[in-house]
Amino acid sequence: MKIGGPALAKKEDWAEEFLSEMQKRAVPLDFFSWHNYCTGPARMSDRAERIRVLLDRYGYQAAESICNEWNYLKNWTDQFMYTVDMIRGCKGAAFVMSRISEAQRAPIDMLMYYDTRPGVLCGVFDYYTYKPQKAYYPLYCMEMIFTVAVPRCGVRRRLKTFIRCVALMRTGGLLQSLPIFRMTMPTADVTLHVDFAKEAEYEIYAVDREHNGERIRTTRDLTVTLPVHSCILIKEI
């Protein structure tokens, strides 16, 4: 059994005092848990870095850093209904892919989407029918990756200011899959060419307004078009 906490929410100012006191009392800590609700993945990584620094500073180098609540959030007040709408659609799906991909380079040991129970903050399943919504499909695609790829072996690159990707490698160096997601403006479609410097055949899966994670083509030509708030998965076959 592992013992930890404290599910740090919005304010971080008491985290250092908490860990300092834990160190003074020689209290063991298996994991440190924290929440993060925001509109972009960089804020999660920044918080993860700050928390890792604090854990190491106070002697908890072996403690796991667990983000045990995260989701898209504009704010909790006048933009909350907007938030709920976005969580259920393409923007929420792109956000999920961005968070999981960004986490591959961040000092995070576990990442827990909140919430897969049908409800206000669930972008995965419909409240009434339990049918999958847009945010289900990035989770499905990432599951495809981690069943065959080496975990936490990510290579992150900024293709544009508004497009990011993370490549995960199978044992032996064969490229297995490349999720690419687009979160932000401009609103026009963006076309790019992915070059792996090798001849191979690939399957391309898409999550956007017209597609729900299905394979859209099998090809050797990796020229792809991304609408705003979209995700694709390129899988070598």
Q: Summary?
A:
By secondary structure, this protein is α/β, with parallel strands linked by helices. The protein contains five helices and twelve strands.
Which helices and strands, and how do they pair?
Elements: E1 4-8, H1 15-24, E2 31-38, H2 41-57, E3 64-72, H3 80-87, H4 90-103, E4 110-113, H5 136-146, E5 154-160, E6 163-169, E7 175-182, E8 190-193, E9 202-207, E10 212-219, E11 223-226, E12 230-236
Parallel strand pairs: 1-2, 2-3, 3-4
Antiparallel strand pairs: 5-6, 6-7, 7-12, 8-11, 9-10, 9-12
Helix pairs in contact: 2-4, 4-5
How far apart, in Å, are the first and last alpha carbons? 40 Å
Task: Report the average pLDDT across residues.
Answer: 83
Beta content comes to 25-35%
* SSE order: EHEHEHHEHEEEEEEEE
CATH class of the largest domain: Alpha Beta
Low-confidence stretches: 150-162, 166-176
Count of folded domains: 2
Largest sheet: 6 strands, antiparallel
Strand order of the largest sheet: 5-6-7-12-9-10
Helix content: 25-40%
Number of strands: 12
Rounded to an integer in angstroms, the radius of gyration calculated over CA atoms is 19 Å
Tell me what you see in this structure.
This protein is an alpha/beta fold and 237 residues long. It folds into 2 domains: 4-146, Glycosidases (TIM Barrel, Alpha-Beta Barrel), CATH 3.20.20; 154-236, Immunoglobulin-like (Sandwich). Helix content is 25%, strand content 32%. The protein contains 5 helices and 12 strands. The protein has helices spanning 15-24, 41-57, 80-87, 90-103, 136-146; strands at 4-8, 31-38, 64-72, 110-113, 154-160, 163-169, 175-182, 190-193, 202-207, 212-219, 223-226, 230-236. Strands 5-6-7-12-9-10 form a 6-stranded antiparallel beta sheet. Strands 1-2-3-4 form a 4-stranded parallel beta sheet. The protein is globular, with a radius of gyration of 19 Å. The N and C termini lie far apart (40 Å).
